[in-house]
Amino acid sequence: MTNGIVNKFSKDVLMYLILKLPIKSILRFKSISKSLYNLMQSSTFINLHLNHTTCTKHEIILFKRSIKEGHNEFRSIMSFLSSYHDNDDFYHVSPDLDVPHLTSTTSCIFHRFIGPCRGLILLTDKVETVLFNPATRNYRLLQPSPYDSPLGFHRSINGVAFGFDSISNDYKIIRLAEVRGEPPFYCYTVVQWRVEIYELSIDSWRDVNHGDLPLPYVHWYPCAELFYKGASHWFGNGRSIEMLAFDVSTETFRNIKMPHTCHSKDRKCYALVVLNEYLTLVCYPYPGCKIDPAIDFMEIWAMKEYGVIESWTNIHIIPPLVIESPLAVWRNHILFLQSISGHLISCDLNSHEVKELDLDGWPESLRVTIFTEGLTLISKEIQHNSTQLQ
C-alpha cells in the first residue's frame, strides 16, 4: 500500500515533501521501500537536504564534557542541545553519547571537535581520528597515518584541520607534524615540518611537499582552527604572531597578518570563529595570568573583506573575564566560553551579559560546536564498516 502511495508522486515532488520532515522522520522513511531508500541515499537528495537545513538555520549545540570516574580514568560525553527562542534554557534533543575511541585519561583535555563541515564533524585527540555525523549517529574510526619519525627524532602533531575540496568533491583531513631531534640531540633551531593529508574518497593518507614557506608553530587551543572559504586557518607563532591558511583544493599555504594590536608580548591567546559570516578573531587574556581590569579586555576583530589585512575591524570590546578559552559562537551574538573551573559560560555580545550555565565538566575538557543536521554519508567505501551509535 505504501509503495502505491509513493508511486503516485513524481521524484521531484517526493523530494520536496520529504525535505520538509525532521531528520528522524527522514531516517525512518528509508525503511518504507527500496525506491525511497535509494532516493534518500542519492547525492542529489543529500545536497538538497544540506542546503535546506543550512538556509533554515535550525542549529543544534554539540557539547562535550569529561567526568572523572577513577584515579586517572575519565568518561567523555557528548550532549545534543537546543533552546526555545534566544534564551539559555537548554534542553536535550536526543540522548547523550560517549565519545567513541578517544582517550579516557587526563588527555581528554586534548580532545578537539573540528568542523562542522557539510554535516560532518572530526573528533581527534592527536592520536585517534574519528569522522562523525551527529545527525545519523554514524561514525568511522579512520586508519592511522602511516608516517613516523626516523630513529633519533620525535614527531608531534601540532595542528589538525578538516575541510571540503569543492573541486575534487572530497573531504580532506590535514595534519601538521613537527619532527625534532630527541635528547641529547634536541635542538629548537632544527625543525622539519611534515604535512599529511587524508582523502575520504580513497581512505588513504599521503605526504605533501609544502615548499619553502616557513610554517609557524600552530596552537592546540580550542577554536584555534577554522575552515572558511575553502581554506583551513590556524593561529600560530612564527617570526611574528600570524594566521596560517591552507587551501584544501590547491594544497598551498599562505600567511595572513593579524590585527595591528596583536603581538607576541600582549599576554593574549587567540580563537578563530565565524561571526556574521566574517572570519573573526577573539583575543582573550592568557589563562592563569592575573587579570588587570584596566587593560585585560577581550577584543573581537572581524575581517570585513577576506584576505585584505586593512579590513580587520574591532567590533566588540568585552569587559575582562577570567576564562580558560572561548568555545563557539551561537546565533551570531552568544559567545560560549569555558571557565577555569570547567563551567560553561555564555556572553551576550550585544549586552555583555555573562551567565554561568548549568553545564560543567573536568577543567579544560569542555568543547562546543554548532551544527545543522545533515545526511552526509561517510563515503560508500566506508559506510558498510561504520558503526551506528544508539
TrEMBL record:
Pfam family, one: FBA_1
Span of domain F-box associated beta-propeller type: 115-348
The protein's name in its UniProt record: S-locus F-box protein type-11
Organism: Solanum lycopersicum (Tomato)
Gene: SLF11
